[in-house]
Amino acid sequence: MRELDEDGIRHDVRQSVRHGFFSTSAVAPLCEPLEYRRVLELACDEGRGEILVGAYVGEAALEANRELLAHAEKAGCSRAVPVPRYLDPASEDEVFDWYKTLIDSTRLPIVLYAQNNPRLRHLHPSGIALGAFERLAELPSVVAVKLTQAINLVRAMECAERLGDKILLGPVHLDMMPLLSQACTIQWSVQWNAECATSASRVIKCRSCPPKPVTGSGKATEA
């Protein structure tokens, strides 16, 4: 029977703290549901007071996702990222309803996950249910959207134009940020491989303009 490398998980969290990150996401796609719950517990315990931890929620059954959200909240996660991996919606209303059901079941802030999902291409060529995302962005607990690595610049700009005045945008590709910042305020990035480009002994701080106030609902400044 396999076991989680609990010391390794704690080490990874400490490394993220040493690199100067303010937040990390506990992603363990090969773990069983009970194993993933333990991953969240370990990450939150090790990072408490030093780094925020987010949970990914993407089980096939809606009730399993509700239970995972409850566990993430109890463990001390700062936010949740619902991912409708198994959803085959006939309309954007169904996408909205899937998210809304989960959002209503938790007090955690929600980050939308903008990916090129083949199951959603009949709703929008990008595979992103942008109509549903626009409606979800109006909800108080929806605070941000992650622009994944599979999104090209054109799709990223469309997300910025349609969502940028409502919630925070977190682009993965750092080379997109100069152009995206012309369409909306960029306050964070979800560059997942940043540890490959620097070291904990030499944290590189980016030079940028002072943060601008976020327009729109104001939710972004609270995130």
UniProtKB/TrEMBL annotation:
<dbReference type="InterPro" id="IPR013785">
    <property type="entry name" value="Aldolase_TIM"/>
</dbReference>
<keyword id="KW-0456">Lyase</keyword>
<dbReference type="InterPro" id="IPR002220">
    <property type="entry name" value="DapA-like"/>
</dbReference>
<protein>
    <submittedName>
        <fullName>Dihydrodipicolinate synthase family protein</fullName>
    </submittedName>
</protein>
<dbReference type="GO" id="GO:0008747">
    <property type="term" value="F:N-acetylneuraminate lyase activity"/>
</dbReference>
<dbReference type="GO" id="GO:0019262">
    <property type="term" value="P:N-acetylneuraminate catabolic process"/>
</dbReference>
<dbReference type="GO" id="GO:0005829">
    <property type="term" value="C:cytosol"/>
</dbReference>
<dbReference type="Pfam" id="PF00701">
    <property type="entry name" value="DHDPS"/>
</dbReference>
